[in-house]
Specification:
heterodimer; A: 3-stranded antiparallel beta sheet; 5 helices; B: 7-stranded beta/alpha barrel; 3-stranded mixed beta sheet; 19 helices; 10 strands
Amino acid sequence: MKKRKKVRKLTPWQKLVSKYGVKGAKERYKKIILKAKSEPETAKDSLQPTPPADKEEKVSLFIDRGVPLKERYGETKIALLPRDPRWIYAYWEIAEAKKEEVRRKRGEEIFSRGSLTLRFYDVTDIVFNGRNAHKQFDVKVYSEIGNWYFQVPESGRTYLSDIGLLTAGGEFITLARSNPVSLPQGKISEIADEKWMIVKEEFEELIKEMQLDKSGLSTKEAMKILSRRLEEILPLGAGSPIPTSRKPK
Amino acid sequence: MEKGYLCLLLHAHLPFVRHPEHEDFLEEDWLYESLTETYIPLIRVFDGLIDDGVDFRLTISISPTLAAMFSDPLLQSRYLRHLSRLIELTDKEQIRLKKQPQFREAAQMYEKKLKETRFIFQEKYNGNILNAFRKFQDLGKIEVITCCATHGFLPLMVYRRAVRAQVRIAVRDYLFKFGHRPKGIWLSECAYNPGDDEILKEENLRFFFLDTHGIIYGTPRPRYAVFAPVYCPSGVVAFGRDVESSLQVWSAETGYPGDFRYREFYRDVGYDLDYNYIHPYLHSDGIRRNVGIKYYKITGKVNLDKKEPYRPQEALEAAAEHAGNFIFNREKQVEYLYNFMGRKPIIVAPYDAELFGHWWYEGPDFLNFLFRKIHYDQTTLRPVTPSEYLNENPKNQVITPSMSSWGDKGYNEVWLNGNNDWIYRHLHKVTERMLEIAEENPQAKEVKRRALNQAARELLLAQASDWAFIMTTGRMVEYAEKRTRNHIHQFNRLYEQIKNNRIDENFLNDLEYRDNVFPEMDYRAYL
């Protein structure tokens, strides 16, 4: 494990909750307490975590998960977040007012005749005008408010997405456009041009210079030697499965 | 003359956990444990090195939320109360263990160490251990850098001004606490998105750190891999983590902390001892938990009930051996790289500070032996701070690093998966609203200004990467959910009040009293 933090031992109560859920845990807990009352603790160094026997009235069974939040904000929006070189997370919401507006323009039936679709565009290094994407692909979704993970065809590219209605005739009616996200390459760059620089403290001076490769080894070979263990150590994310069992709604 | 540099960095962070509304609060233990087991033992080591004339260099990133807790009078007095109780327990333990000589050495160690801890905390540094780090920095031994204001995870923020506020508020906070601006920053979770360096430059930060692949997968590819830092196009420097030295210390299987002679973390008197005896040292809910006194060593791959007694002297010997081994490996690595590169390599080895002491009990002793051996026994390696290194080596390659983090799988998945992805819809909404009310009130005065400042605090506290992390690991999840929801809810109430020009002062007073992080807050960081 690369990161060890706050992975603390579960308390007996937390163990019960993780195993039986809050309701089941309460029942179990009562049983344990009753048992503990009938069998007073024996060995001084006993290892088994024991619930508080004579102080059980103080144990709080209330779990505070905070104030419930709104599920909808009443807006028409789609946002993208980068997960790793090949996966994007998106969440979206279509407001009732927006649907009303589209119905007025395109007829009452438009939402039942078209299908709600996310259209992803590859907009790497371009100013996107809605028609000049390098590539695009569509994914149907089934809910006006939702979220999901999407695998993209290529790492190291910049994507954005429109959420809209795809009509039977193949027309795409855009409802909202997302922010762009740039995904990492997830591999060693093919570009070897070297540029070197000197920056003095407080950024007072920037001196840039180009430098030719003077060493016998090419940088690619050098990199391979220097980072030979990297690939073993870092199980990098490309092509990893969706981490959740949830399905798009 | 040395052949290479060693840049050791400890990342010191905890989320802001402070509950004046409760007399006794479980999660505040995170701070108390880290003080007793990590920060005060480290201070003891550094003071010892200075007293003995051992020259050393270390970099420490202290997150603004941890710095806020270190300097908070309420938490300071609560820590002292906590520590005094623990000392009372160790006093009792001397009597209980009179007839159990196998535990006596450890029991005496705790008594001595904890009393010394109280002296260092209370007498030597006046209850605020930032005084110690300021002193070490002034002596030129330690470089203290900052971290994002509340440890927000930058690549998932979307709004550039939200990223900038995390950085700007951190820099300003450091200025108030240390009297000058920080030169560098540790990005929360080592998480970077290309372009974040532009924001660091705006705040006059000279350098930051990346995980190995953040550099290796940069464009164009870096000539010296992670063994020399690189300039981002903005002119800000990125140092890359060395894999080998990290692994030797981090790895659960092959790393030093797994040595059988070291102290076993999971065998604690909070679970082991007679309930009525230990009860006064548990929380008021009476549930058995770790209290921090542990008498067993790792022993081997055996069940907890088969562990053998911990022998402090034997564990110290292990720490000394491991320090020697670490240096030996770094010398070999540096010699090889020096010949290969034709310039002095830098080995950057960052760790979570709490690894030293809290998880690996003998970690501070390891660092003690490490710096002493480096000072007296060899000439190949030279410990260095990032600023010193850059002053001596200003010429470096320019690359655009790759998006990366030091979390599992190397990118953002630990903070973005089915357990925690629901938070981003709300966090982004709150961010939009913060930008909106800041723009509408660029010159707010009095109560409105206070409300805007508090709204900014609530947003920042909700953004702490710790909550998403805890939701992923599955432990203490309720608390992480509660904190996320409550800060968002409190923000939204303030937002409505600011929008309607009807600020409820009682509500505001209460929030200011509870969530009192960043006393110098200026909401215009969001403009």
